[in-house]
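Supplementary Methods, section 5.1.

A reviewer requested that the exact input to the structure prediction be made available. We therefore reproduce it here, unchanged from the version used in the analyses.
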Amino acid sequence: MPQADKSDHDTLSHGKSEYEGKHFHFENPEERAQILREAFDYRGDVTLSFTDGSTIEGFVHNVNQAANTVTLFAKLSKRESENKEVSLDQITGLSFSGEDTAFGKSWDDWVTKSEAQRAREADRLRSQSIERGEL
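The structure derived from this sequence is encoded token-by-token as follows.
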């Protein structure tokens, strides 16, 4: 999904993406497939719940419906992760547990910020030139 499209999602209060903080318990394979597609597009960590009661937190980087697997960078610690592949059949729920780190960071926002920085720099340089008597 292109970045410009991602920034157009509906928002909750406090500038969160529409999924951040939401929890889903899957009732059927179609719902699981839909939410896993959203987890793949999400730019933050999710927590997967499994049939045995265990959970894994990490960043989803591949959902392969044909192979019936999801692959994620599973968190081992704050700075370490491992690539882990799990079976879709074992996943019973998903929480969008991490912050969507890229939410609201669109190209238009970057352009606006850059233009403002350039204008401030031009003002600073003009002021310095005036102080030196060059203008």
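Confidence is low (pLDDT under 50) at residues 1-14. These observations are discussed further in the main text.
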